[in-house]
Amino acid sequence: MRNILVTGGAGFIGSNFVYYMLSRYDDCRLVVYDKLTYAGNLDNLLPVQDDPRYTFVRGDICDRADVEAAVRAHAIDTIVNFAAETHVDRSIMDPDAFIQTSVYGTYVLLEVARAFGLERYHQISTDEVYGHVPAGRSSREEDKVDPRSPYAASKASADLLVNAYHVTYGLPITITRGSNNIGPYQYPEKVVPLFATNAIDHLPLPVYGDGRQMREYQHVRDHCEAIDLVLRRGQVGEVYNVGTGVEVENLAMVEILLDALDRPRSLIRHVTDRPGHDRRYSLDIHKIMALGWEPGHTPEEAIAETARWYRDNEWWWRKIKSGAFREYYEAQYGERLRTAAPLP
Ligand code: NAD
Ligand code: DAU
Which residues participate in catalysis according to the annotation? Predict the structure, then answer.
């Protein structure tokens, strides 16, 4: 029996990880510990709410007493930390919460893991810690981190702390660095759910700059499978990249998405670029593949399947897009869309 504290488990990847683990193992218990920020959503966990192996605790990872109480009450042996502020554009608008949660919050979790002698602390990290990767190269786990946005810097800082706790205190840690995840329950500020839900409503799709930036769009289920594998077979103290090995330009992603939803290319608008926009991420995934993992979806399948999930699950996203999201959308896109170049 494994008792896992899934911090940030009411968000996109964390909730998918909870399903994955409950569907795969009978003998694990999952305690979601989540502050429920704007991105946390108990609707994401509705399918498991009556499962006796699942418990929800509302709490902030920056609050040591609350984290300790949850670890003690549920006899936790493993922490998997998904909790973070996760949207690059919001980190450009206001980095404060990013630093607080990813830096101080990760420190608190590490201290608790050390004090309780946990069997494993696993950190969910990102390919963004490597920064922009020039053409012809792929990031390997031993590459130096070179983050370029406040979000990426907050995540890289957390990775450095996690590694320091292993080296200094012998804490049994592992880290996975994932590429762009897509799939069910992703907050519609991220590009794929934003564009899918806009396209469903025949609204414009604000593509930053020329749209030729490269991302590795990955199905969230494949990422969850890799995290589980690292928990079982990963070597303590090690970092594992989790990507697809297939780079997709944003414009190509948009075309797959529009085709899946039967919407025209004329919805595309090229708008002012994101400041400091990393043009290319690319992960070398040989190390995780050597553990016996490979991506279960092509990027095309992942993008089309995801677009159709949003088409079929309006109950989930319409209420999000009608609330405070509107103010965010106006601040982020209002001016950009009003001044967007008309289509040729
Ligand atoms: P998300 O924004 O959907 O969810 C984040 C969750 O963390 C939310 O439920 C939120 O309420 C919770 N949270 C935030 N601050 C907290 C705090 N102080 N205490 C407790 N809970 C808090 O994010 P996501 O896309 O599911 O990402 C999860 C993790 O995976 C993050 O660490 C992110 O950096 C990393 N990651 C994401 C991607 C991606 O493409 N989405 C790729 C690689 C890595
Ligand atoms: O690479 C992993 C990272 O992927 C995670 O660590 C982050 O938490 C996650 O948010 C994501 O970061 P990105 O910045 O890559 O994702 P986003 O969905 O915001 O943007 C994907 C690409 O699409 C990026 O090149 C910017 C572009 N984009 C994004 C938005 C929101 C647009 O062109 N228009 C948009 O409106």
Answer: 127-128, 151
Say if residues 260 and 304 touch (Cβ distance below 8 Å): yes
> Each residue of 58-115: pLDDT tens digit?
999 999 999 999 999 999 999 999 999 999 999 999 999 999 999 999 999 999 999 9
Residue with the nearest Cα to atom 15 of ligand 1? Answer: 84
How many angstroms separate the CA atoms of 214 and 9, rounded?
28
- The Å distance, Cα 241 to ligand 1 centre, comes to 17
- How many C-beta atoms lie closer than 10 Å to residue 52's C-beta? 6
Query: Percentages helix, strand, coil for the chain, rounded to the nearest 5?
Result: 45, 15, 35
pTM: 0.98
Q: Determine the residue of 5, 6, 13 to mutate for testing ligand 1's pocket, defined as the one with the most ligand atoms within 8 A of the Cβ atom.
A: 13
CA dist., res. 151 & res. 92, Å (int)? 8
- For 264-322, the pLDDT digits (tens) are 999 999 999 999 999 999 999 999 999 999 999 999 999 999 999 999 999 999 999 98
CA of residue 266 to ligand 1 center, whole Å: 33
pLDDT computed for residue 235 by the predictor: 98
| Cβ–ligand 2 contact at 179 (below 6 Å) | yes
Task: Compute φ and ψ for 292, nearest 5 degrees.
Answer: 110, 20
Domains of the chain in start order, with CATH, are: 3-182+219-242 (3.40.50.720)
Q: How far apart are CA 96 and CA 343, in angstroms?
A: 37
pLDDT of residue 323: 84
Q: Say if residues 170 and 163 touch (Cβ distance below 8 Å).
A: no
Give the Å distance between the CA of 274 and the centre of ligand 2.
10
Tell me the C-alpha distance between 210 and 67, whole Å. Answer: 44
What is the phi-psi region of residue 8: left when phi exceeds 0, alpha when psi lies from -120 to 50, beta otherwise? left
Atom of ligand 2 nearest to the CA of 253: 23
- What amino acid is encoded at 46 in this protein? L
Across 167-193, b (16+ Cβ under 10 Å) vs e yields eeeebbbbbbbbbbbbbbbbbbbbbbb
Over the stretch 22-37, which tens digit does the pLDDT of each residue have? 999 999 999 999 999 9
